[in-house]
Every structure is written in C-alpha cells, then in structure tokens.
Amino acid sequence: xxxxxxxxxxxxNEFIKEHPEEKYSFIAQDRWYELRKALKETREAYHINLEHxxxxxxxxxxxxxxxxxxxxxxxxxxxxYSKVLGSSLYLQPWEG
Length: 96
Prior knowledge:
CATH architecture of the domain at 30-96: Orthogonal Bundle
Largest sheet: none
Low-confidence stretches: none
CATH class of the domain at 30-96: Mainly Alpha
Number of strands: 0
Shape: globular
Radius of gyration: 17 Å
Helix content: 55-70%
CATH topology of the domain at 30-96: 434 Repressor (Amino-terminal Domain)
Order of helices and strands: HHHHH
Oligomer: single chain
C-alpha cells in the first residue's frame, strides 16, 4: 500500500470551515502542544532526567511521560514540572 501524503493544514481548515464551533479546540490543542514541546526541550537542553523531576515533584516517571506525550492535561502537573525546570508559566484568561 503506497504512502498517501496529506496536507494537514488544508484538512484542518476544511474541518474548521465545516465545524466552526471546534476552532477554539484546535487553538487550545496547539497551546498544549507548544507548552509540552517547551518543557521537553528545556529538560533536554539542561540534561535533566525524568528521575530527578520525579523526585522533586513526587510524580511517577510514567506520569511525566504522559505529560510529555500529551496524555495528561492537568495544569497543576504542568506547573510542578515547569517549577523543577526553573521555568515560569504565565497563565492568562481565555480570549476566545
């Protein structure tokens, strides 16, 4: 079966056009993704392993992996993770 290339941006725009109520869900998912990406990049840049973060936050390594993979959306877990990295998160009201 040959690989079929998909234009994800076009598909997303088509979906939003058909379902305008989902627009803000896509925006929120993009923000969660950028946050996870920043946390993981910071952790790797400073060579901080998950074991260290696990000890400091009292969260399991599996839970930390869930955060990095987007399976955990509890903002308090993200705040604990970022605090260990020395990062600060600015939380602002939803403008959508």
